[in-house]
């Protein structure tokens, strides 16, 4: 007979004693449980003891978390958090260096536990840590333990970062700015400053002033990968917290210092594989850089602005004034105005009398004008060829340069997500972005020439403008999906993907769609579905058995602890536990926490998850909502919360968990995989029917013949 729900069988250890095997009554007060355990070992003062997990993070058992104890858990009888906090509070003030160092080391370990942290902070323990940092000149092991303990204590959000003294902050800054300091201390100091920056404007300004961009670039150029990562994390935190003007100045300075070339050569093309954290920071750096275009993109042209009118006139002058025999200044005002209007019409402006009207639409706003001017100044030959080639045509097949440029700028802004907030989890950056200065403008130069090329291939007229731009968008997105490593490679590939290739791809996709719509084929699809869905289910469960590395996302920052979760080979238990950075696939034995599949009640996704309700709503968290899911187990109050690293992982995990719960797989990936498998299976089965049209209705079955009497009669054989 299974034990009652409120009883769990556990083992309790103590150094130098035989372990106790007890049945823990969850309804019994924890103080009474401790009294029984202490009495069994003849220990006085039960209130001075506490229970703690042996494995994993060695969390203290409290009334609030005791329901998480599972059958078979191994606990340890240890000093209570308040006694331990008191002992370590005294230990870190000791005059004996060894005692002080050991106390700080233990403090750094125990501070991960919220119960202990609360007890230690309530004794004004942080003040002692401040003193050690502010007054001490040690930069060795003792300081490393002190900074680690401080980081863990601040992680619990009991104390505001704004309470830190200027002396303490400047001391942390000094460790970042000093050369002769242990790398582990510099990593911890960079991490502390990174956490500090987003919390208040004053702290941001202080850190920005004290830690120069030059110093961060020096750390970025170190061979120590962890130091490099922490420096990048602080740089990104500063960029994200800065105002638009400050961010622009910082990016201009970084451009002067050739950070792009360094990242392209030493990080992206390093011999070491790029970690998830660094990939995310490169994505943010790319996003921040592209978003510098947002202001121009959202600003309409002002027809009364002298500067903007001059830029507009420069387009006309670059294209036409070199070919005109007489300078326009010799003409009358009326003649000159008429000539300008004619030339603006040749340039492809729809409103040639007042071309500024074409640029009133925002987005793309002034960014379209900037892109056209960049093209005309940096590739004047290609610009002149484009304009003159089309302005001299009389067969209505001329490609309008200005109209195409305005629409192309808008397309590029949409594809590159210009003006959108940075995702908290995305890692998708374009390697070619870091291989080129003025990335957006250079990409525009390639793509506007692609527009002209595609226009000619389609033999398009003005009525076909939208169709051409749709094809160009497809050419760009299909090529970017291949992740070219340089703009030269992008140019080669996008030009190879000409209009006829796009037509072939569309034709293939359309034929595939048409052949799968015949009634007999649809019936065959339905028959094949159950078998293929079972195959997908097996794949999902195999993926869960392999496991995935997840990242805990706190309310203040993205960078946080890593943890791993995997399903046992017999599909009966989910194992999970914290892991260190760089661990690829930890053995299942090292994952100390577990949830029996039988105890899983339901799966929550998106806004339903408790950890998404805790976070503030807004655009910044949209990506977290799309990747969040939770497993409700035992009773509804207890959830294991996940934020998947990618949408692909989200789909595989939610599908796998639904299979374990006996429910249907609901992710979009299931439909995609099913369509691919059905397509392959149908093609294999219909190979013999190639070029044979399949009728919508089956042929009629003929009537049986009149001489259908050749059946053997067994009744006569028995006689």
Automatic annotation (TrEMBL):
Q: What Gene3D superfamilies does the record point to?
A: 6.10.250.810, Leucine-rich Repeat Variant (1.25.10.10), Pleckstrin-homology domain (PH domain)/Phosphotyrosine-binding domain (PTB) (2.30.29.30)
Which terms are listed as keywords in the entry?
Answer: Apoptosis, Phagocytosis, SH3-binding
Q: Which PROSITE patterns match?
A: ELMO
Gene Ontology molecular function terms on file: SH3 domain binding
Q: Does the keyword Chloroplast apply?
A: no
> Which GO BP terms apply?
actin filament organization; apoptotic process; cell motility; phagocytosis
The record's listing under InterPro entries reads: ARM-like, ARM-type_fold, ELMO_ARM, ELMO_dom, ELMO_domain-containing, PH-like_dom_sf, PH_domain
* Keyword Transferase tagged: no
All residue ranges annotated as the ELMO domain in the record: 307-480
Q: Which CDD domains match?
A: PH_ELMO1_CED-12 (cd13359)
**Function of the protein:** Involved in cytoskeletal rearrangements required for phagocytosis of apoptotic cells and cell motility. Acts in association with DOCK1 and CRK. Was initially proposed to be required in complex with DOCK1 to activate Rac Rho small GTPases. May enhance the guanine nucleotide exchange factor (GEF) activity of DOCK1.
- Please report the name of this protein according to its UniProt entry: ELMO3 protein
Q: From which organism does this entry originate?
A: Cephalopterus ornatus (Amazonian umbrellabird)
């Amino acid at each position: 007979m299974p034990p009652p729900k409120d009883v769990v069988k556990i083992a309790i250890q103590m150094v130098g004693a035989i372990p106790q095997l007890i049945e823990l009554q969850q309804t019994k007060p924890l103080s009474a449980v401790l009294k029984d355990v202490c009495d069994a070992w003849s220990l006085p003062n039960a209130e001075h003891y506490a229970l703690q997990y042996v494995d994993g993070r060695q969390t203290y058992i409290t009334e609030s978390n005791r329901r998480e104890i599972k059958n078979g858990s191994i606990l340890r009888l240890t000093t209570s958090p308040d006694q331990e906090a008191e002992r370590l509070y005294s230990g870190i003030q000791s005059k004996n260096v060894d005692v002080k160092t050991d106390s700080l080391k233990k403090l750094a370990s125990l501070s991960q536990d919220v119960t202990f942290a609360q007890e230690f902070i309530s004794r004004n323990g942080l003040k002692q840590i401040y003193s050690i940092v502010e007054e001490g000149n040690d930069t060795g092991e003792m300081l490393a333990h002190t900074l680690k303990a401080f980081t863990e204590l601040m992680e619990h959000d009991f104390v505001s970062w704004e309470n830190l003294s200027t002396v303490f902050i400047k001391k942390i800054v000094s460790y970042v700015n000093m050369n002769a300091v242990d790398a582990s201390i510099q990593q911890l100091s960079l991490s502390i400053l990174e956490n500090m920056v987003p919390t208040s404007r004053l702290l941001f300004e202080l850190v920005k002033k004290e830690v120069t961009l030059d110093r961060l670039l020096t750390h970025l150029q170190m061979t120590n990968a962890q130091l490099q990562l922490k420096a990048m994390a602080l740089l990104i935190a500063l960029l994200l917290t800065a105002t638009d003007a400050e961010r622009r100045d910082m990016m201009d300075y970084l451009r002067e210092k050739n950070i792009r070339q360094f990242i392209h050569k030493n990080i992206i093309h390093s011999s070491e594989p790029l970690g998830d954290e660094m990939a995310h920071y490169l994505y943010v750096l790319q996003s921040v850089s592209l978003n510098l275009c947002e202001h121009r993109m959202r600003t309409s042209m002002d027809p009364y602005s002298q500067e903007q009118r001059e830029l507009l006139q420069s387009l006309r002058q670059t294209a036409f004034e070199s070919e005109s025999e007489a300078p326009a200044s010799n003409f009358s005002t009326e003649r000159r105005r008429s000539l300008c209007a004619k030339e603006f019409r040749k340039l492809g402006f729809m409103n040639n009398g007042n071309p500024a009207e074409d640029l009133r639409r925002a987005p793309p706003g002034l960014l379209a004008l900037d892109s056209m001017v960049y093209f005309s100044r940096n590739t004047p030959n290609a610009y002149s060829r484009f304009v003159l080639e089309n302005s001299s045509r009389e067969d209505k097949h001329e490609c309008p340069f200005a109209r195409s440029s305005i629409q192309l700028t808008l397309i590029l802004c949409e594809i590159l997500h210009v003006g959108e907030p940075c995702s908290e989890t995305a890692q998708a950056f374009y390697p070619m972005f870091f291989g080129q200065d003025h990335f957006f403008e250079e990409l525009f130069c390639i793509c506007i020439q692609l527009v002209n090329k595609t226009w000619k291939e389609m033999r398009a007229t003005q009525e076909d403008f939208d169709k051409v731009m749709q094809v160009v968008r497809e050419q760009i997105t299909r090529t970017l999906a291949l992740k070219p490593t340089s703009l030269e490679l992008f140019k080669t590939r996008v030009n190879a993907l000409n209009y006829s290739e796009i037509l072939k791809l569309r034709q293939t996709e359309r034929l595939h769609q048409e052949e799968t719509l015949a009634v007999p084929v649809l019936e065959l699809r339905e028959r094949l579905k159950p078998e293929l869905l079972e195959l997908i289910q097996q794949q999902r469960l195999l993926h869960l058995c392999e496991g995935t590395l997840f990242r805990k996302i706190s309310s203040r920052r993205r960078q946080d602890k890593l943890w791993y979760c995997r399903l046992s080979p017999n599909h009966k238990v989910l194992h999970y536990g914290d892991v260190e950075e760089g661990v690829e696939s930890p053995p299942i034995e090292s994952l100390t926490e577990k949830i029996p599949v039988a105890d899983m009640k339901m799966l929550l996704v998106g806004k339903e998850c408790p950890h998404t309700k805790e976070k503030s709503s807004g655009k910044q968290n949209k990506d977290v909502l799309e990747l969040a899911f939770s497993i409700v187990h035992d009773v509804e109050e207890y959830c294991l919360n996940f934020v998947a690293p990618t949408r692909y992982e989200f789909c595989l995990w939610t599908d796998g968990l639904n299979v374990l719960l006996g429910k249907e797989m609901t992710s979009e990936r299931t439909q995609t995989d099913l369509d691919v498998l059905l397509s392959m299976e149908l093609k294999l089965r219909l190979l013999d029917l190639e070029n044979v049209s399949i009728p919508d209705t089956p042929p009629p079955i003929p009537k049986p013949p009149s001489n259908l009497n050749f059946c053997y009669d067994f009744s006569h054989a028995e006689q």
